[in-house]
Amino acid sequence: MALKELLKQRVMERLNFSQEISDDYLKEVIQQEIVKVSKDYPMLLSDKIRLKQEVFYALRKLDILQDLLEDDTITEIMINGSENIFIEQYGKLHRYPGHFSDAEKLYQVIQQVASGANRMVNEKNPIVDARLEDGSRVNIILPPISIDGATMTIRKFAKEPMTLEWLCEREAFSEEIAQFLKILVKARYNIFISGGTGSGKTTLLNGMSNCIPKGERIITIEDSAELKLNGIENLVRLEMRNANAAGENKVDMNELIKAALRSRPDRIIVGEVRAEEALSMLNAMNTGHDGSISTGHANSSKDMLKRIETMVLMGVDMPVEAIRGQIASAIDVIIHLGRSYDGSRRLLEISEITGMTTGQIAVHQLFELDDEDQMQMKGELVNRRKLKEYGQYETYQKLMEYFKARDQPMEE
What we know:
Layout: H1 3-14, H2 23-37, H3 45-60, H4 65-70, E1 74-80, E2 84-89, E3 92-96, H5 103-116, E4 127-131, E5 137-141, E6 151-155, H6 164-169, H7 175-186, E7 191-195, H8 201-209, E8 218-222, E9 235-239, H9 253-261, E10 267-270, H10 277-286, E11 293-297, H11 301-315, H12 320-330, E12 333-339, E13 345-357, E14 360-369, E15 375-377, H13 385-389, H14 393-407
Parallel strand pairs: 7-11, 7-12, 8-9, 8-10, 10-11
Antiparallel strand pairs: 1-2, 1-6, 2-3, 4-5, 5-6, 12-13, 13-14, 14-15
Helix pairs in contact: 1-2, 1-3, 2-3, 7-14, 9-10, 10-12, 11-12
């Protein structure tokens, strides 16, 4: 038996699980057992410290994952069965040398994560989205759906508040682009953020939400709560609820959006739309709730519009042209994100929706990432009513003058 497993067994034998066990008491018991075991198995002080931490994590935290969760340089953790753990660090994927002791231990950790988020995961319900206490997003897939053992993917979030300035420091975009995004938020444009998996959609949404004036009432709607909106006092957070074991008491995103509309919001922020709730999201944006923000998966801004069409058709049978009309009147700006070859997350494109042209949604490009990784200005906002209405017009004009001066061709 491995030393770690031996220590776990001896510590477990000493604990009285009918009483509450504090972290300090558990650490003290572990330390005492290490002293006893070290008489038969001599070890260095550094090994004793490491062993004490590993046993504590195994009994109280998330076992081998705890060190990875506490490492701020790691952004994603992927567990493919008990033997295979991969991490994303500085935008690159690496295989982690450690692993769970066995499949049963991985299953225990998965159950711990699911129950902590008030979720149920088992053979009957093998696919679950959950979150950790710090807001990190978790996706769990159990056998027999996952053929080679249970899998769990953890998308970590930064511990510090995410702002546009924070994103600028990480070179996602320039300070001037951050100022443009801030203007869009303050002028209450309805914004849709698109991008692939792991492109930074939720991170950007968090950053932009910090630009919302503090006096507004904000309602967030998510399938698994992960948004971190800071400085907003009048905030209501709504989260979907899965059906119970009897298939009852489910609360889906459509119901949450309807509830939000009756709760006098200034803005509604929908974490991510994936299916027929897209129509409810469009209706929310079309019912006077300017400044709403949502996200979705797509390869480009135009692809996102097609996906929204498809998602609406999942829930209702209506003419495509009518759906396009809904999209064109609801969404003002689409921001598209992607990942560079080096793994960094970048803003690739900002486009404005200007209405309908011959049955198609008219898309007007505002900024695009060029070959030198600089956001190149392609055009100005056509709809400037909101800029004037919410006092952002002069700030916008000054910023446009900067971009025009920067991007004009040099005279020979």
